[in-house]
Amino acid sequence: MSTGPYLCRCDPPRVAEMKTSWTNKNPGRRFVRCPFYQEEQGCNFWMWYDPPMCERSSVVIPGLRRKIRNLEMEVSNLSEACNSKEGHESVENYVNNKEQIECVESCHESIPTMDGYPNARQTCECQRSGNIRCSYYVHTSAPNMTV
């Protein structure tokens, strides 16, 4: 890898442009190419600038990008909620509801069916630990209850 600019094979040669790949196989890996790559006046010069990535990076980077996209969508949703007429109340409700939905989903995955037990009792509470634990808790006793 040289430190100077790369020149393509056009006549006259042009300074190659640097791009970044965002494919799953080569996320974040840089390459250089002719500024007119795959065009009639270009020479189709193309080469990797960065060395190949390790296999772990090829798995971790796309996952982190998905996580960033999801967080950006959540920020956008919260911003819209802040700008709505309900204002801060709607944001607080959104956060509380989101926490409870997550808790309910994680809880109900592991609860057995209670059919056929007339005195069945069920408890369900937040499955998260530490500081992220919310106050979600349900205690029911209903005949023929299926959760």
From TrEMBL:
Record keywords, A-Z: Metal-binding, Zinc, Zinc-finger
Listed Pfam families: Zn_ribbon_GRF
Transmembrane segments annotated in the record for this chain: none
GRF-type domain ranges (all copies): 8-52
InterPro entries (UniProt xref): Znf_GRF
Superkingdom, taxonomy of origin: Eukaryota
Name of this protein: GRF-type domain-containing protein
The organism of origin for this protein: Cannabis sativa (Hemp)
